[in-house]
Amino acid sequence: MNVPAKPATITSGGVIGFFRNPMVARLGWAISGLGILAALWLVFGYYIEQNPDTRTFSKFGLIPTLKAFPELLEIGKLQTAVAVSMHRLSEGLLIAVIVGIPLGILVGRKKRFRELTNSPFQFIRMVSPLSWMPIVVYVFSEWHGSIVFLLAIAAVWPVMFSTAAGLAKVDPAWFMVARNLGARPMHMLTRIIIPAITFDILSGLRLALGVAWIVLIPAEYLGVTTGLGYSIQDSRETLSYDHLTAIVVTIGVIGYTLDTLLVVLIRRFSWHRG
Amino acid sequence: MSIRGTEIKIEGLTHRYNAKSPLTFNKIDLVSPPGEVLAIIGRSGCGKSTLLHILAGVLKPTEGKALLNGESVESPSPRWVMMFQAPHLFPWMTVRENVGVGLTFARWSKNEIKKRVDEAIELVELKPHVDSNVQDLSGGQQQRVALARSLVMEPELLLLDEPFSALDAFTRASLQKDVRAIAKRLGFNIVFVTHDIDEAIIMADRAVIMAGSPGNIVHKLDVDLPDPRERQDPSVQELRSRLMTTFEQAAYSKEEAPAAASGQ
Ligand SMILES: Nc1ncnc2c1ncn2[C@@H]1O[C@H](COP(=O)(O)OP(=O)(O)OP(=O)(O)O)[C@@H](O)[C@H]1O
Ligand SMILES: [Mg+2]
């Protein structure tokens, strides 16, 4: 993809040229930022260790946290929790996509539908997904389904709204040209609309992922006995603070990785210039 | 690649946009033989684009008929393809994909598409750019892609609405000659709308002047010049001033009469 190694960098000298490479530079900044975060954490851990009043919480520090990882992996706790949470996340997002894209296309293409649905959608969107919990549990009568529903209802809005916004930017002339060249309604959808707005759909999915990942953890605090959210609760109750922070770190790493993955996909499918 | 033209027959064509609006034009009659390149010129708002859209099948006439080889135009078809002022290429497709898109709608086989697309791209001289992103092409090159995308359908009739007006003078001049040459080589009909009298003379076999409100064809002029036509040729110059005079007379004698009087 990006091959920024121009002859100029070679002539301007090995080491300096290497650090002038924009990709290397960006990675350098990212690592430095994370390094500062780790250092702050280390210092923080050191002080709660030193202070007799807070010593009980010393396992929150960086070193105990890092030591907790092998333990958690060995008993398989971390893998199971990640697998269960990811399963819920993907089901929730899948539903959000299946519902959100067609709704977004309707909203974007049909003025009447947009005018009719805008207020109710904005209204429902502003209700915190977690506030549905009691009703949802009643309806689904089991926890997995309830959590997936909460994720779906949190994630559907960004998918829907960015699909609609993408469609609004679609040049109507493309439809005219396509019709002129013999496109049937099916072609309009698969050859024009979808490729034209893949970028917007993925951008919506990226936002949806962020929201769903944030909603997932508190949703798992309630009722269920599996998943990352539950593991945090469990570690707190058993006073295994090092496990707790290790899970928090895992949540961050997974969220960050998934987000980066989507950024890569968005770049790949973006035809927008500039 | 060789394309057969079509006989265009317009009979009593009348149009209004809706019940409240005035007639756009009233009872237009016109015949254009197979293979003719026909220019429509006229003041802004006299209904040129509307006429073209009816020929393309994207608008319906209020009365009268547009016939191609005796068959009434009812809807868009790859047999009569319209090209617009802007290229409107699909930016997520390469040059090759843009040119072939109409053939994929018609479910041609991959090999067949490749063969035809290669021919069309050759015709518009874009071979070095087949795999380029269309957003990286110049305005003139993009309009060439749009032309190839229309030609690849081997239409009997190509409809052009001020196709080159967004381009610089040099690009415009070379495309005008190319399009005429391609049409003459392959034998299809062209009907094009233009504001540019030079364009009409360089490209057309015949020019018709539309004027009035409701609009109608007020004058027809054969452009009987040998190819290739150069702007600075005396014969081109002579015809140009004749067309210009006719155009002004036609315009004054019709709707512009009061305005012309007050201007004197
Ligand atoms: N969608 C529409 N609804 C109502 N009236 C319209 C519509 N489109 C065009 N008209 C009117 O119809 C008349 C003819 O329009 P048309 O676009 O055919 O003119 P034109 O000759 O192509 O003009 P130009 O040279 O400026 O492109 C104009 O008076 C215009 O105002
Ligand atoms: Mg027009």
CATH topology of chain A: MetI-like fold
Say which CATH homologous superfamily of chain A is assigned.
MetI-like
Task: Give me the side-by-side strand order of the main sheet of chain B.
Answer: 6-7-8-3-9-10
Largest sheet of chain B: 6 strands, mixed
Q: Count every helix of chain B, treating DSSP H or I runs of 4 or more residues as helices.
A: 8
Give the uncertain stretches of chain A in residue-range form: 1-11
Which range best describes the helical content of chain A: under 10%, 10-25%, 25-40%, 40-55%, 55-70% or over 70%? Answer: over 70%
Identify the overall geometry of chain A. flat
The portion of residues forming beta strands of chain A comes to: under 5%
The value of Rg of chain B in angstroms is 19 Å
| Helix coverage percent of chain B | 25-40%
> Looking at CATH, which topology of the largest domain in chain B would you report?
Rossmann fold
How many domain regions of chain A?
1
- Identify the quaternary structure here: heterodimer
Separation, N- and C-terminal Cα atoms of chain A: 17 Å
Structural Rg of chain A: 24 Å
> For the record, what CATH class of chain A applies?
Mainly Alpha
Assigned CATH architecture of chain A:
Orthogonal Bundle
